[in-house]
Design a protein that fits this description.
Blueprint (H helix, E strand, L loop, with lengths): L15 H14 L6 H12 L6 H13 L2 H4 L19 E4 L6 E4 L10 H17 L2 H11 L20 H8 L4 H21 L15 H6 L11 H9 L9 H5 L3 H25 L1
Antiparallel strand pairs: 1-2
Length: 282
């Protein structure tokens, strides 16, 4: 009997059920000493069972019995690849217990429908959680990104983002398991990295060391790492500019983050080019 297997090899190919299982395992094991083999075995057990059914379990057992681990472990490579990003969020999450259970909805893949104001708050709490490992910041990040359904906006079925509603929203999202919030942060991290890759002038990276430039880099003075700069300051600078591309401050906050960053990146390119021409003309 021939059985077909479809083993995902990218984060975004995982089902929501698989992402939740991965989150539970990664969150619970993050502070434990686990061997590389044991970690890969756990990941494989998730990858081989896209949905917890008897049929899928039987298929996974048959595969384990026919194919050696040395061949199967290659399918776990994406988990260890820093360039392989999870940029998809759970579409919806049920929070709380019946009969008080409520449903909150997540942002679009790659944060495509998130405004620059929403990104500003989300990024601040994500950065604090990533650097200080305070669970409270993980709660706040989830309360910002996941909201109840409201309005007729086809691009975003969530209630419009408002700082005034964060406390109310947090009372709902605080009941979401930490393991799920951990994967929400993991997805946000992937989206964040995607923004950085697509807008290199807004987020300049340090020069990479190569055989050709290693001496030049060694001779340069060591620069202190720049402190975290919240997006709120960037929003203010765009809104107060002589040419208000998006309008006043309130209008600028409502612009989608992807559009805002793309325009800002192009603005920086043109500013550098103008500065270069002015230097040549002196």
């Amino acid at each position: 009997m021939r059985i077909n297997y479809n083993i995902p090899q990218k984060w975004n190919d995982l089902t929501e059920s698989q992402i939740r299982f991965m989150g539970r395992f990664m969150f619970n094991s993050r502070n434990e000493q686990i061997s590389n083999r044991a970690f890969k075995l756990a990941v494989l057990s998730v990858l081989l069972v896209p949905k917890f059914t008897i049929k899928n379990i039987v298929k996974a057992v048959l595969l384990w019995s026919d194919v050696p681990f040395s061949e199967l472990e290659q399918y776990t490579a994406f988990v260890f690849d820093n360039k392989e990003l999870l940029t998809r969020f759970p579409s919806k999450i049920k929070s709380g217990k019946w009969p008080f259970r409520k449903t909150v909805y997540g942002p679009a893949a790659r944060l495509a429908n998130v405004t620059i104001q929403e990104l500003s708050y989300a990024d601040l709490f994500y950065y604090k959680w990533a650097t200080e490992n305070n669970v409270a910041d993980l709660h706040r990040l989830t309360a910002i990104l996941f909201r109840e359904k409201k309005g007729n906006n086809r691009e975003d079925i969530r209630a419009p983002f408002s700082t005034l509603l964060l406390e109310h929203n947090a009372r709902i999202t605080d009941k979401i398991p930490l393991a799920v919030k951990f994967m929400i942060a993991h997805a946000y991290s992937g989206c964040r990295e995607n923004f950085i890759n697509r807008n290199p002038n807004v987020f300049p990276r340090p020069k990479q060391v190569t055989d050709n430039n290693v001496e030049d880099i060694e001779q340069q003075p060591v620069k202190k790492q720049k402190p975290y700069e919240p997006f709120s300051k960037i929003i203010e600078s765009m809104a107060m500019d002589d040419v208000q591309v998006f309008g006043n401050h309130q209008e600028t906050e409502k612009v989608y983050a992807a559009v805002f960053l793309s325009v800002l990146d192009e603005k920086i390119v043109r500013s550098k080019e103008l500065e270069r021409k002015n230097q040549l003309n002196k």
